[in-house]
Amino acid sequence: MSEKTKDEKNGKEDDYVTVRIPKELSEEADKLIGKKGFKSKAEIVKEALRELLDHYGEDKHFQMLNRTSDGAKVRDVKLGQVADIKITPEGIYCPICDASNCEHIRFALDQPDVKNLIRRKKKEGWKLPDA
Ligand SMILES: [Zn+2]
Hints:
By secondary structure, the chain is an alpha+beta fold. The chain is built from 5 helices and 4 strands; from the N terminus they run αααββββαα. It has a domain at 61-123. The chain has a 4-stranded antiparallel beta sheet, with helices on one face. Strand 2 (71-76) and strand 3 (81-88) form a beta hairpin. The relative contact order is 0.09.
């Protein structure tokens, strides 16, 4: 938990964390300073990270519709379909993908109430993934 120590040290900079990156990568980034409107390395790193996060933000094409007593309904906006995910003693199942591990299930497992359900059922011996 070195981040915490850093925060404690620089009390004023609570809104910032320190991340260590390989020297090689840092030197590559340095080459961009002064180009493309970048004034500092921090700016370059920020921009790169922002782009990556936007990319993974594509997850937003899933919407949690509701949790049922034996599963969860996840709308896949891209496919225009609803994944009616089933949670049974034998495991978790997505009918759209015919799979027990797919992006719909991973999305559902990110939802706090689904997590709770899974944890509860796991204790009862259901064969479910970690949540
Ligand atoms: Zn699926």
